[in-house]
Each structure stands twice: as C-alpha cells, then as structure tokens.
Amino acid sequence: MDYRTNIEQQNLLNQFLGEHGVKLPEETLGKLYDFANLVVNTKEFGNLISAKDSEKFLSRHIADSLMPYVYTKGNGRWADMGAGAGCPVFPLAIVMPKVQFYAVEPRHMRVNFMQMVKEKLHLDNLTVVGKRFETSGLSNLDFVSCRALSTFENDWERAQPALKKGGTFLTLKSFNNVVHLENDSAVILHKYTLPQEEQVYALVTRGNE
Q1: What total number of domains does the chain contain?
Q2: Quick check: pTM over 0.70?
Q3: pLDDT tens per residue, range 114-137
Q4: 3-state SS string over 41-59?
C-alpha cells in the first residue's frame, strides 16, 4: 500500500477537507501520506491497524484526525491521551507545526513506533511521552485531546486537571456514544460523516472554566 500514489484515497481526503473549508499545501499532504504509509506498512511494532482500515486510512483515520484542526486552529501546548499508533496527534502535528504536541501513550511498542515516526517525519514540534496521562507530569495545557478512548465523562475527568484555565478538551466519538450530551450547555458537539462511511461521528469540546 502506497498512499503517495493512491489517487482515490487522496481525492476522498481532499474533498472532505474542502467541504470543511480546509486546503492543505502539497508538502503538508505529502507528510500525511508518508504517515499513513508508516502506519499501514510497518509490521515490527505489532498490529497497528486492521486490514480493512488500512485500505481507507486517509479517508477514515486521517480525515477523522483533522476534525479538531477544522474547528480549532490551536496554538500553545497540546497533549493527546492514549495516542496509540498516532491518531489524531500526528496528523494534527503535521498540519499545525507551530503548536507543541505531546503524544502520551503507556504501551511500549506503540511508544517505540511513534518515536520512529517522529524521527522519520522530522516532527520537531512533537514529543512522545511513554507514560499514562495521569503520571505524565504534563500540566497547564491549552488543549487535551483523545480519540475513542473511553466515555466522554471519563475522558474529561482525566484531562481536566492538566488543562489551564480557559483551556479546551477535545474528543472524537461515535455520535451515538455522545447523543446524551446534546443538551449539556458546557459541551459543544460538531456532527460529521466521513467519506464512504454511514456512521455519524462527533467532535466534542468542553472548555475548562
């Protein structure tokens, strides 16, 4: 699989971004394709992604990872809890080079993989932290994010102590899992669908008052 030559997947990603008012430079897109290739084709760090998802990595995982960028042109310091194989934190670090990102993940193999990717892609604005978020020592953060980690309530409880006053928590969920938050005045939900996917997703944000 080579996403540098997969025109169909490239078109799906760019069409999706265009629908959300985003046009990325070719150099930035190239780095996103390189990241996708590393996740899909690297085998020595265990099974990073299912075979089914590896065929639609740009339209499913990269597109999803960039939703926080669509709604939050962030600056400052941003930590991603349970970063796994690097989504959403690596795509976000690629498109927002002036933001300092921390990819926080306790699993040793995933940490080694992300460290390798950071070096290959020369992502000087990203630090891989091989710990649980609660013991990472990170604090006074402008943003904390996670993707499909736990329930919104559990994720918020973990993130909130590390956020600065006025900071923002962001999480990517299946809409079905957060529909109960629609009438919560402390929370903002942005619903969206991904290319060729029937399921409805949501970017959920909450500010730290």
Answers
A1: 1
A2: yes
A3: 999 999 999 999 999 999 999 999
A4: HCCCCCCCCCHHHHCCHHH
